[in-house]
Write a structure and sequence with these properties.
six-stranded parallel beta sheet; elongated; alpha/beta; disordered N terminus; two-stranded antiparallel ribbon; 287 residues; single chain; 13% strand
Length: 287
């Protein structure tokens, strides 16, 4: 029987705190590879990621083994910045379709370029730029720092706590938990907040949006609906139905995954398409 390491997780999101999990002791080959990546010369994020993916060819690694590597090297001063990119490469190369991160190690750039056939569930704590350029599905039940889902094309559901810059996406980002700021004017897709509305949102919802770009106008209209329960009736009804479906998963990531399956293989694109069609009908009537 292999050696194991244990890691006590912090309570995260709305889910019940998980029991202490055991992780396998990483083998020597994996440790050598991880050390080499961790101590490599700093490149741009994309180059660092591509190098990690290329060098990981031939490595048969599970999510549990990847997490074990993080625990092993948690004290390394480079882990918080470079660990996220390295872990993203390992997660994305694994054969697991649903991947769970449950550690209290706030990695930057974690979830980078998540493939569109993967689901990443955060029940721990992650750093800045979580889910950057992701094409897959990310469920957050834990804690994140700022700028989540930046330049992503997938679906990001927040049931936990997230920092500033939520929703700078080309896909769909939806909040059911706590966020510091909703970045509707930086979203080229849709940023939807079903959580607690700030004074800034309440004031912004009254802004005249005629001079705004299409995606800015539509996101502001959605915010107006969320804050004042007023706006395009068809869009309001759609958002209410969407909320009723997705909020059922706030306490259970497995339930959320089952619900998301109803939206097909590309849920973010389906939600975008349906909202776009509703807005186009309304805009055509107005003109």
């Amino acid at each position: 029987m292999s050696e194991t390491m244990t890691y006590k997780m912090q309570p995260a999101g709305h889910e019940e705190p998980a029991p202490k999990r055991k992780y396998p002791e990483p083998d020597k080959r994996l440790k050598r590879w991880f050390e080499k990546q961790l101590n490599a010369k700093a490149f741009a994020v994309k180059d660092q990621y591509l190098d990690a993916v290329k060098s990981a060819k031939g490595l048969d690694i599970s999510v549990a083994e990847a997490n074990a590597l993080l625990i092993k090297y948690e004290s390394n001063p480079r882990i918080h910045y470079f660990g996220g990119i390295i872990l993203s490469a390992l997660y994305n190369r694994s054969n697991e379709k649903v991947m769970i991160y449950d550690l209290d190690i706030p990695l930057q750039h974690f979830g980078y370029e998540l493939p569109n056939d993967r689901i990443l569930v955060n029940k721990g704590r992650v750093g800045k730029y979580f889910g950057q350029k992701s094409k897959g599905i990310i469920l957050n039940y834990g804690l994140t720092e700022w700028d989540v889902a930046t330049d992503s094309h997938g679906l990001f559901l927040n049931y936990g706590t997230s920092g500033l810059g939520f929703g700078k996406t080309f896909g769909v980002a939806i909040n059911f938990g706590n966020i510091e700021e909703l970045s509707i004017f930086s979203a080229h897709g849709y940023a939807i907040d079903y959580g607690t509305h700030t004074d800034k949102q309440k004031k912004r919802a009254d802004v005249n949006y005629e001079s705004l770009k299409g995606h800015e106008r539509r996101n502001l209209e959605i915010e107006r609906i969320m804050v004042h329960d007023d706006g395009v009736p068809e869009v309001r009804n759609y958002l209410q139905d969407l909320k009723q479906k997705l909020e059922k998963g706030k306490n259970d990531h497995e339930k959320t995954i089952e619900i998301i399956k109803e939206f097909g293989e590309q849920p973010a694109q389906k939600i975008k398409k349906e909202l776009n069609e509703l807005f186009k009908r309304y805009e055509n009537v107005q003109t």
